[in-house]
Design brief:
2 domains, six-stranded parallel β-sheet, about 30% helix, 9 helices, Rossmann fold, alpha/beta, Dihydrodipicolinate Reductase, domain 2
Length: about 375
């Protein structure tokens, strides 16, 4: 199960900030550094590590942090509470093992290894160390935390089916598992791919203004978890950035369903009611408090409170900050593991199985990895 890492209960910020070392110099590494700058009373970066001398020098000047060539040198010099790694897929296992050898907890960006063989090998090396967490942020988006709380309250009964159309692979699997309450259940997976024209007015690089249809692939997969429920995965190329493809999530239960922010359920034996999750956002119209998420409410009850107000953070940034807070609590023995390596391995294994089902055009049955035993 996934730990609760948000401020729903109005927790006061910790006076002693978490001290962490950042490995990498890409945009994701930059996020973890920027969060520390936004909340210095709670988060603190001790330095950064980069092998490339040019990138290392540029990052050192840009962020104003001491830069190192190796994890060992950086850990010995700065003595962080934990390490945050945001490196390319092939480099992740080596970085994780370097931290574990130094007996330092590590939060590693997704996925922890590039393929199934790599996942099995990584688990054999460090799986039992109890030092590795994965930075799978999607289940900790404010809206998804709020939805999960309604499920946990039993408002729609036991969740039996999930449909996710927003993000790809292991990220979508993480959402599916969290909403269904799954651990390491296996699945039978079928998948197919279609291609059609779609304008791409915006990409990761920014606004293109190009409205000419471009070849765009859509992948749909069905995952049957047996008694654990079922899921429908639906992802279109560039869906993260293309405003012409909306994000959707549907969670069906035995006594109702959640459709994005709308809830349909039985209030009693004869009364069907519809309600909505509503975001309270400051900085709109005559509100001068600055643009910020305050809370998400359901039927007058705040089911999620933003514990990072003042940072003017996007949902993805709030989720990343929540993972860092989870690491701070966990390494100090004050909270549960935020997202264990085993969970990250399970997510990627199922995501790879979707790729296999696409490639073979046959139903693929997954088998328990060593992390599930």
């Amino acid at each position: 199960m996934i730990a609760v890492l948000d401020g729903a209960h109005g927790r006061a910020p910790e006076s002693v900030p978490a001290r962490y070392l950042v490995i990498g110099t890409g945009w994701r590494a930059g996020l973890f550094i920027r969060l520390a700058r936004a909340f210095p009373q709670r988060l603190s970066t001790t330095g950064l590590v980069a092998r490339n001398s040019v990138r290392r020098s540029e990052a050192e000047q840009f962020f104003g942090l001491p830069a190192f060539t190796s994890v060992k040198e950086a850990v010995e010099s700065t003595k962080p509470d934990f390490v945050v790694a945001a490196v390319p897929w092939p480099a992740a296992p080596g970085v994780i093992m370097s931290a574990v050898e130094l007996e330092v907890p590590i939060l590693c960006e997704t996925p922890p290894a590039p393929d199934l063989e790599g996942l099995n090998e990584l688990w054999a090396q460090v799986g039992r160390s109890g030092l590795v967490q994965v930075a799978e942020q999607y289940p900790f988006y404010p809206g998804h935390v709020a939805r999960r709380r309604l499920i946990e309250r039993g408002l729609i009964g036991r969740a039996t089916a999930v449909q996710v159309s927003s993000t790809h692979g292991y990220h979508a699997i993480a959402l599916i598992r969290s909403m269904l309450g799954l651990a390491y259940e296996n699945a039978e997976i079928t998948a197919f791919r279609t291609e059609s024209g779609l304008a791409q007015p915006s990409t990761r690089a920014g606004w293109t203004g190009d409205l000419s249809p471009q070849p765009s692939a859509n992948v749909v997969a069905h995952l049957d978890f047996g008694a654990g429920g079922s899921a429908l995965y639906d992802f279109t190329d560039n869906q993260w950035h293309n405003p012409l493809r909306s994000n959707r999530i549907l969670i069906r239960g035995e006594r109702g369903e959640l459709v994005d922010d709308r809830v349909v359920r039985m209030r009693d034996e004869t009364t069907v009611v519809e309600s909505e999750l509503r975001r309270r956002q400051s900085g709109i119209d005559m509100n001068y408090d600055g643009f910020d998420l305050e809370h998400i409410e359901f039927e007058g009850d705040a089911v999620y409170r933003n514990d990072w107000r003042g940072g003017r953070l996007a949902d993805d940034e709030i989720a990343a900050a929540s993972l860092l807070e989870g690491m701070r609590l966990w390494v100090r023995g004050e909270g549960p593991e935020p997202y264990p390596l085993a969970g990250g391995c399970q997510d990627h294994m199922l995501g790879l199985a979707i790729d296999e089902a696409l490639g073979t055009r046959r139903t693929v049955s997954t088998h328990s990895g060593p992390w599930a035993l």
